[in-house]
Specification:
Lipocalin, eight-stranded antiparallel β-barrel, 1 helix, globular
């Protein structure tokens, strides 16, 4: 009986570790590859999310800073590295899967939007 309980406890513990690993893998934090090949870093900051180009032509360019979580997405002001620095867009970031992140910016309300899907760098 004790062996059975120990085995059951081991199975439960292993299941918990597997679920914890999945939860960690489903985090937006880390390095992401943009469609143009640049590498962006996404991290927690100011109670929200920040994202900047880590490797590429515009290294150090901050795309979003302190955007806040609203349901399953993060929302806030964004900048695009190929647009003039004074331009700000209504942005959203959504984790599509453990390895895909959708980054979208809109101008003039929601009438003109552009989006990229970033892939996690392993």
């Amino acid at each position: 009986m004790n062996v059975r309980k120990a085995l059951f406890a081991a199975v439960i513990a292993a299941s918990g570790l597997a679920l914890a690993g999945q939860a960690m893998a489903a985090s937006p934090w880390g390095l992401w590859k943009r469609p143009n090949g640049e590498i962006a870093k996404v991290w927690k900051c100011g109670g929200g999310m920040c994202g900047a180009i880590e490797k590429g032509k515009k290294k150090g360019f901050v795309m979003f800073k302190g955007i806040k979580k609203a349901g399953s997405v993060w929302k806030g002001d964004m900048k695009h590295p190929s647009m003039p620095g004074f331009m700000t867009f209504n942005g959203t970031v959504k984790l599509l899967s453990a390895n895909k992140l959708k980054v979208q910016g809109c101008a003039i309300g929601q009438s003109m939007c552009d989006a990229e899907t970033w892939v996690r760098v392993k």
